[in-house]
Write a structure and sequence with these properties.
The longest helix has 22 residues. The strands form five sheets. This protein has an eight-stranded parallel β-sheet. The protein is α/β, with parallel strands linked by helices.
Length: 436
């Protein structure tokens, strides 16, 4: 969604280099024409020791759709039948179930299986069977809203950072409105232009410390999870893709929050334009590299892999179509969810999240009455819950439309102002009061 920042600000532009990377489950690069391709679904799963899962293989590019199944790690990684029924070993570990084309044995696809039972109640999320799941294996029913960091949609960049105000708004959103999911939107700029609170986390240790303080406050609340999202960053390309500079920031965030189970990572805000999908493969490569930067830190630290949300490749993050046939492969594709932003009427819901959620773990990272009516937003929330899709409304702010709270700031930063819901906010609050 193209968005106007809060008044008092100049517009930020994002400038950087396009990142190229490669990787695929077949013998060709994503987007290249392939004679034969194999895709295994689900692409990843988590099983208890000696658990089981039946995988399916889709073969394209040949009339002969037969495959042979194997486990890459051999007998120590479990066993799989000719029909794709996999049985996990008694030992924990990371294993790969492989389907190889009979027509072209040089082409194969694989699913990554994490074997091991997470301790109950430890708070870590994981992904399996196309859903984000709590540590006890039940689906994560995350509902809530976007919330801005101390920069506050550029409304508070002109004064010293005030993490206490962000925490006050968390208290309202969670304790009063009953949200259990927050997308914390991180915001930095290339230059001051009069601002005093604007630098990126690599050059402003105080900003990183504020983020730790804010996350700790939210995570201390029972059942609450925070999606740390890079929202505005001068490290993005002009089309909103992550770059090598973005990945350096993600490496720092991954190190900072490596032991925090109630955090998810959202790579960027919205890959722009690309309406015909011509740049899907390039967006995929940039996203895959960003995931790898996070996984490298977690693997080196020996900590669990956080759930990472990867944004849609087209139309300001709307479309997940490319990921249906090209899921992220970095880190074995484990604990990856796919984030769409929906500012569209119900006629597009099937395309944007209902159909993708049948095979991918989907999160609606933004939606609100802009390009859709408030009634449409109610329809979206009902449909998301019916399809097991967590959702986050835009936005718990007074001047970053569509706003969930009334502007009682007298045109200022809004510190200490009364947090009154707008009509849109009242609709979300009422929905959150209902059980899911």
């Amino acid at each position: 969604m193209r968005r106007r920042l809060a008044p008092l600000a100049v517009t930020a532009t994002v400038l950087s280099l396009v990142l190229a990377a490669c990787g695929t489950a077949t013998t060709t690069e994503p987007g290249d024409a392939a004679t034969v391709a194999v895709r295994v679904s689900p692409p990843s799963d988590q099983l208890a020791p000696e658990g089981s899962r039946t995988f399916a293989a889709a073969v394209t590019g040949t009339a002969d759709t037969r495959v042979t199944w194997s486990v890459r790690e051999g007998a120590g990684g479990g066993s799989v039948t000719a029909g794709g029924a996999y049985s996990a070993p008694a030992a924990s570990g990371l294993f790969h179930v492989v389907a190889t084309s009979v027509a072209d044995p040089t082409v194969s696809g694989a699913a990554t299986v994490t074997v091991g039972t997470p301790p109950a109640g430890d708070g870590w999320l994981s992904v399996s069977a196309a859903r984000i799941r709590l540590s006890d294996g039940t689906p994560f029913h995350g509902r809530g809203a976007n919330l801005h960091d101390t920069r506050s949609c550029n409304a508070c960049t002109w004064s010293a950072a005030n993490p206490g105000e962000v925490k006050r708004r968390i208290d309202e959103l969670v304790d009063v409105w009953k949200a259990n999911f927050i997308r914390l939107d991180l915001e930095s700029y290339a230059s001051a232009d009069g601002r005093v609170n604007w630098k990126g986390l690599l050059s402003d240790p105080g900003y990183l410390a504020d983020l730790q303080d804010i996350v700790a406050h939210a995570a201390a609340k029972p059942g609450v999870y925070v999606l740390l999202a890079q929202w505005i960053s001068p490290t993005f390309t002009s089309l909103g893709w992550p770059t090598a500079a973005t990945n350096l920031e993600w490496a720092t965030l991954a190190e900072t929050f490596k032991d925090e189970p109630r955090v998810l990572f959202g790579l960027v805000n919205e890959p722009q334009s690309n309406f015909d999908g011509a740049q899907d493969a390039q967006v995929w490569a940039a996203m895959n590299a960003a995931v790898q930067a996070i996984r490298d830190v977690e693997t080196a630290a020996g900590t669990p892999h956080h759930v990472i949300t990867v944004q849609g490749t087209r139309e300001w993050a709307r479309s997940l179509a490319y990921y249906l046939t090209h899921p992220i492969t970095a880190g074995g594709g484990v604990n990856i969810a796919y984030e769409t932003h929906v500012y569209d009427p119900p006629t597009r819901f099937a395309e944007l999240f209902e159909a993708p959620s049948a095979t991918l773990p989907v999160v609606i990272g933004e939606f609100g009455p802009n390009g859709m009516s408030q009634a449409d937003c109610g329809t979206l929330m009902a449909s998301a819950e019916a399809h097991g899709v967590p959702y986050l409304a835009w936005t718990f702010h007074m001047r970053c439309p569509p706003n969930l709270i009334v502007d009682n700031s007298a045109g200022g930063c809004g510190v200490g102002m009364t947090l009154t819901p707008t009509s849109w906010g009242s609709a979300l609050k009422a929905r959150l009061a209902q059980p899911w």
